[in-house]
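User: Last request for today: this protein with adenosine-5'-diphosphate, please.
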Amino acid sequence: MTEPKTEHKAEQTSNSKPNREFDIIARYFRPLTNGAAGALALQDDAALLSVPDGFELAVTTDCLVGGVHFLETLSPQDIAHKVVGVNLSDLAAMGAMPKVVFLAAQLPKGIQESWIADFAEGLRAALKPSGAALMGGDTVSTPGPVAFTLTAMGHVPKGHALMRSGAQPGDVLCVTGTIGDGALGLAVLTDALSIADSAERDHLIQRYARPQPRWKLAEMMVRTRQIRAAVDISDGLLADVGHICMASGVAAVIDAPAVPLSKAVRGVLAQDPTVLNTILGGGDDYELAFCAPQNAIADLQRLANELGECITVIGRIVASDLENTAPVTVHDKAGRPIIVESQGYQHL
Ligand code: ADP
Ligand code: MG
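Assistant: Here's the final one, the structure of the complex with adenosine-5'-diphosphate:
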């Protein structure tokens, strides 16, 4: 956003009521504005934003409730990374560069100040790579669990946002990064899975707790103008590829052996082949799935490698078969369809 030139008083005036909420905002959240003038030092009723010529604003919001969308046993820093990560991942799915976030915080009565300080530190760290500024929000206390609603805004070249619609039969289906780490990380944290190797265990937990939104890759993908459809993988690979299929009126075939897996996930799968259901159907990957014409893939992979990231072809888009209710078919290494049990995260 271009910053409006506004002088603003640096501190609360003497007639503002002294209260804990204002103290928390001033102490922990104001530093996260990065001095953006349009944040008005978090002392006014709204922030002022503008969008540079030639861009449009992608806006997304996600509400995360303790015990529902994240484990309350996560550290405050991890929770902050998760809250930021899931939202910036939605921006990445649209091809938008993160610029501004707004945070509505519901804090249980009597929450420790050190918890808030650690959460704010996590927010700072999670926002830093993209340089996105916190420019407003709301802070309330609640008798219920801790919950955060983050609204994230990003810039995308006008008319070139990535969308779920637009996939065509013949397109190649790709994903970024590796799949299944987040779902297995959650399984480790809930004691549904035990892993002997501590480095692999930590890797999976980190992937669950601290998603790495792929906005750098997304920006590159937009620049190529080669992406026909994209989605971020939050509900599970099969469910989210299914979302592309529904929006585009197509079907998809995924070659299970082509799905990129981390060493930790490969190890678990080798012990128990039924874990494939969790890998393909579990959520919390926060990678991107996208479709592009075959002749664009080599360039996309080269550009991804230059960013230190990875793009893998996992299948193809085919014509929708109206007889067939499932839009996504998974094939084994012999090309035979296999049944995957899990149907993705159900929100309601
Ligand atoms: P109002 O009463 O008008 O809703 P508030 O007292 O809730 O205003 O908020 C005062 C200022 O502090 C506003 O600029 C708001 O955007 C900001 N703010 C409140 N909570 C947060 C938060 N959790 N993160 C960032 N900014 C916040
Ligand atoms: Mg107000």
